[in-house]
Amino acid sequence: MIAMPESASGVVLGFLLASFYGAAFHLVFGGPIKRILVYLAAAWVGFFIGQFVGDFLNFELLKLGKIHLASASIGAWAMLLAAWWLIGQDS
After folding, report:
1. What angle (nearest 5°) sits at the alpha carbon of residue 25, between those of residues 65 and 84?
2. Is the whole model's pTM more than 0.70, yes or no?
3. What is the Cα–Cα distance from 36 to 67, expressed in whole angstroms?
4. Is residue 48 part of a domain?
5. Nearest to 46 by CA among 66, 64, 19
6. Which is more confident, 65 or 27?
7. Is residue 81 part of a domain?
8. Rounded Cα distance, 69 and 12, in Å
9. Residue range(s) defining the domain that contains residue 60
10. DSSP for 33-69?
11. Residue 78 covered by a domain
12. Residue 17 confidence class, pLDDT cut points 50, 70, 90
């Protein structure tokens, strides 16, 4: 069996959580199918920016292994809301 390095499992978990956030956002706010790609990208970018900020500031609230869940989730949802606002409702 091939063992995954600790950091690789954190990256996989981060992509899964961010993908879930993006899909859930699209489910709630709807729109054309092409918007899910925008929401997924926004969630991924926001999650990893939030992860970086949480790691830089040593934010320990809701930490799961190497992932700072609170700051990463806040970053993902902030980027999702920003993407939703920037896209508007016309597409």
Report:
1. 115
2. yes
3. 24
4. yes
5. 19
6. 27
7. yes
8. 14
9. 28-91
10. TTHHHHHHHHHHHHHHHHHHHHHHTT--TTEETTEEH
11. yes
12. very high
31: which DSSP letter?
A: -
Residue 84 maps to a domain: yes
Nearest to 29 by CA among 79, 80, 86, 68: 80
Which burial class, exposed, middle or buried, applies to 37 when counting CB atoms under 10 A from its CB (0-12, 13-18, 19+)? Answer: exposed
Collapsing DSSP to helix, strand or coil, 30 comes out as coil
* Other CB atoms within 10 Å distance of the CB of residue 9: 14
Of the candidates 16, 10, 7, 17, which has an alpha carbon nearest to the alpha carbon of residue 74?
17
Q: What total of structural domains would you count in the chain?
A: 1
- Report the Cα 31 to chain-centroid distance in Å: 19
